[in-house]
Write a structure and sequence with these properties.
Layout lengths: L3 H9 L1 H7 L3 H4 L1 H9 L5 E5 L5 H8 L3 E6 L2 H7 L6 E4 L11 E7 L10 H11 E12 L4 E3 L5 E3 L3 H10 L3 E11 L5 E10 L1
Parallel strand pairs: 1-2, 1-4, 2-3, 4-5
Antiparallel strand pairs: 5-9, 6-7, 8-9
Length: 197
């Protein structure tokens, strides 16, 4: 993510976002499904980790986690979770080959420009070990726009997302849908897809 206005919102509201997403680490069905599919002692990338709730839960489950986020304030919060390797990085920093057993990209790549998504998915597929696990969560819809706080989003339909995943070499194995209020208070429909690399 390189949108300055979006980053500024996350830096200024990191604590508020941490409070809003506190239950992600303990009650999120998508995270529980991800953990159930991971081999023991996996090496996981939490891409766009936010305050690190999911990363902390993965470490407690016995996994090694690298947590990356473009927001310095979010990384400061993520680093407070024992055992989490937290570092500032953007989507353009995605790299490595067969480095991870799993990648958790939960409502982070929705801030990536649409034109860059195929590249990022290709890089993530390369970074995963063969058969590795990839979770992605995005908001459903069309086009790109800013929310009430100024964060820039790119929206996808289910078919568009599945097509992008398949084009990058992923095989979707599970999907879930829902609607929740965001940091700006607005309700938003979302999709999560769990895939194998």
């Amino acid at each position: 993510m390189s949108d300055k206005e979006t980053l500024a919102v996350y830096n200024s509201k990191a604590s508020d976002y941490a409070d809003l997403t506190d239950e992600v680490g303990t009650k999120d069905p998508a995270l529980l499904a991800f953990l159930n599919h991971l081999p023991p002692q996996s090496h996981v990338l939490d891409l766009g980790c936010g305050p690190g709730h999911a990363a902390g839960t993965m470490v407690k489950a016995g996994h090694t986690v690298v947590a990356e986020d473009a927001s310095v304030e979010m990384i400061a919060l993520a680093a407070r979770h024992a055992g989490v390797e937290a570092r500032v990085a953007t989507f353009d920093d995605i790299g490595g080959k067969e480095a991870f057993d799993g990648v958790w990209a939960n409502f982070s790549l929705l801030h990536a420009p649409r034109a860059k998504m195929p590249e990022y998915l290709d890089r993530l597929h390369t970074a995963l070990k063969p058969g590795g696990l990839f979770h992605i969560g995005l908001k459903l819809g069309d086009g790109e726009k800013r929310d009430g706080l100024g964060r820039k989003y790119t929206y996808y339909s289910e078919n568009d997302l599945v097509g992008l995943l398949q084009a990058a070499g992923f095989t979707p194995i599970a999907r879930s849908f829902g609607s929740d209020p965001g940091l700006d208070g607005a309700m938003a429909d979302w999709i999560c897809v769990l895939s194998r690399g």
